[in-house]
Amino acid sequence: MTDQLEKLAEQTPRQEVSDVQNINSVIEIEKLTNELHGLVDKELTLEEYQEYLTVLRSYQPKTRKELLHVLKVRGKLKREFSKNIKGNERDGYYATYPPIPPRKITEILFEHCHFKRISNIEAKEIPLFMYRVDTGTYTANTDIIDGCILAIQDDVTERYCKEIRGWIRKDIERTPYRPFCQDEMFVVMKNGLLDLNTHKLLPFDPEKIFIAKNAVNYKNVEHPKFPDGWTFDNFLEEQASGDKEVVKAFWQLIQYALLTNKTKNVFVYLYSQLGSTGKGTLSQLLINLVGEENAGIANIKQLNENFMIASIYDKVIVIGNENDNVFLAVNENMKNLATGDGIKVEIKGQQPFWAKSSPLIVQSMNTLPSFSKIEDGTKSRMRVFDFKHSYQGVNGNSRGNVAVKKNYIHNTQLLEYIAYKALNMKVEEFRDTADSKRIRGEIEEMSNPVLAFVKETLETYKSTVLPIRFLFQHFRVWLALENKADKWTQRGFTQELNKVLPSCWNYDRKNKRPFAGFEESDYHSFNAERQNIRGSLIYGATEYLYNPDELKKYQPLIYKENIDI
């Protein structure tokens, strides 16, 4: 009979809610809460149950605390309506409360929460997301969903929660999955959705799907006045040594960190060989702008670890330290995060899924990284800031102005000033400064042994024609002397050599002979280097160089322009 009454009660119509109605609902919910606590030996009538449901459904919580309170009252109401009164007048009456079935808890959750399957990629496994009323974003964090379940019935087990999540998933699988909002002109701020086309704030909306936001309000304020006269604009001027292009690039860095919905297409290195240069201060400022909750922490090596991606894919920014002397065998994750391409997310105990994510990757380092293979796509996306200004000894402190890092960059008004200024700049392609290009060239040279070999040795040759076989043998000697891995084939060496040859050199595979332009002194220099490799014999060099018939054969070689061979 109770189930039939409840079905009738569930037909209570839902209505749109105004702010005034919401305030009135708060008063009614508090009154209802007190009334439910007073029920011991009384059963709810259908009319009372419908009345209470109307009050609860008419309320739209604005914070998680309010949502959990409403769910708690819904659970209490359901238990009171389903309870059994036992006992008699002589011995007294008491109530027994049957547990709320998982299916019913699922129905209650759907009435007060928004659930969606969200993905920008067609995939078999698409995670379950829940809308967070306090942030205006969606989350796949099962702890947050389980918290709502526990609010309805606080004695459920982890297995019970998993069953309810399963019911939620089955229900929403009947509807198509939804993509993340892909409009790059939306920025999710603390106080609403900023439309960069109009620079107006819009209210959060569960139908506009975002998974990350910034922690600062979009608000036009003046730069705060600090006792020592410090300003953020002067700080950037110092870092840039007065170079206006570098100052603009710094502001772009801040802007890109705040652009929650934009595919960044870059990853940023903050580089300095000095101490107390401001790298850490700027990194912390970026974290303060987006919020600790929306910032991932992972260095370059960790970005290539499978389970690390689960902790950063839904972040606005990924900050990394401890990158000194880093050598990377692969960098696919970093590239995919920068480009917003699909990336595999593996969470322990859950099915892996694919997601599109584009946090801004910012890595701080005192030495430059090297890659086993550095592709054009990787090179073109690097942006490097060279911190040349050291604050050691400023204000008599070996670490510089401590107040900046401890106090100033945490000041709410300063953060609002910075965010407003950055978001009112035109969104453009990230600047590639002269410093950035120079340091990127150093990284490329460190990462490409053929390029490093060419730069170090090619101009030392007296020959105007160099057989590829000789160059390859010399390259192998050079690798041994530099303590670098020798996993190269002559074919691989030749392919890479063609990419990095200076413009004054040309490659020919079969139409020229080396005898006319090859200098014997180059062989002797090479042979002297070879003798420095303890116990090593480079195959074939001697026989090759002193065989006149071989030198007269057409073969792969490089030659300088305007050389007739």
TrEMBL record:
Q: Which domain of life is it from?
A: Bacteria
Residue ranges annotated for the SF3 helicase domain, each copy included: 245-400
Keywords attached to this entry: ATP-binding, Nucleotide-binding
**SMART domains from the UniProt entry:** D5_N
Which Gene3D superfamilies does the entry mention?
Answer: P-loop containing nucleotide triphosphate hydrolases
Q: Which Pfam families match?
A: DUF5906, Pox_D5
Name a GO molecular-function annotation.
ATP binding
Is the Signal keyword given for this protein? no
Cited SUPFAM superfamilies: P-loop containing nucleoside triphosphate hydrolases
Q: What is the protein name given in its UniProt record?
A: Phage/plasmid primase, P4 family
Q: What is the lineage of its organism?
A: Bacteria, Bacillati, Bacillota, Bacilli, Lactobacillales
